[in-house]
Amino acid sequence: MLNVKHFLHRVQNKIWRLYNHKLPEFLSSVQFLWLLHIGSKPMKVNQKSAMIIAPHQDDEVLGCGGLIRLKREQNVPVQIVFVTDGAASHGKHPKFQSGEIVPIRKQEALCALSILGVDKSQIYFLDKPDSQLQYLDASKRQQTIEQLAQLLKSFQPGEVYVTHRQDRIKDHEVTYELLLAAIQYSEIEVDIFQYPIWILWKSLLFRDLKLGELASAYRISIHSVQSKKMEALEAYRSQCLPIDAETSAVLKPGFLRRFLVPYEIFFKPTSMLSNQYPNR
Fold first, then answer.
1. Tens-digit pLDDT profile for residues 234-243
2. How far is it between the farthest Cα atoms of the chain?
3. pTM of the model
């Protein structure tokens, strides 16, 4: 009887694991492959200067590392803005109390972006509290908008790349909102592209995105700079590798694999989305 109970318990655990882990990962992989090979249109890298807005140190390489390198190889100006300080990635780890991971992540960012050809002078850290952007009070939110607006007016980018508005991580979604507000505040004209990080992992695209948004997906080929992107990503050791023997890496291998392909995906907001911001 005990053996039967033990067997049923093991079967139950396997079914639970398949349903909660393997099935979502499989569906995620299928929709990513569809988007990459069927659901997106090809896009070439142009000569427009680009500002990359990243909620955390590593988002810029994951989503735009190939694009950044391609533009820098053509001497196109690229500026990187990190919104949060990145303190939350190891917030509960005993080795990294009180934001001690912050300087490590900053140094990793400088190293990664140097590999991609971005000069230190073109990298900005706004140091907003990690995982707290949605809780900024009105004055701090406005301060962040004005900081972004000042950078936009100073740099005058032709394009801005920002995390997707439904990226399933609050800091990523709020970063998109802050950027739109900053563009309105600065009154500049600029092309916006959204780069997906978590939406391709945590979401079912056909359920969560409208048809017009799916139709606005583009892909760029990064074949010639793929190795440089991988090298830059490896610079984020605190995110891609375990800190010690007792912990696992922040970014799981299955998640990372989709960013190591020779393409990058971007969404260009449609007129339907722009109508939410009529002053643009």
1. 999 999 988 8
2. 74
3. 0.88
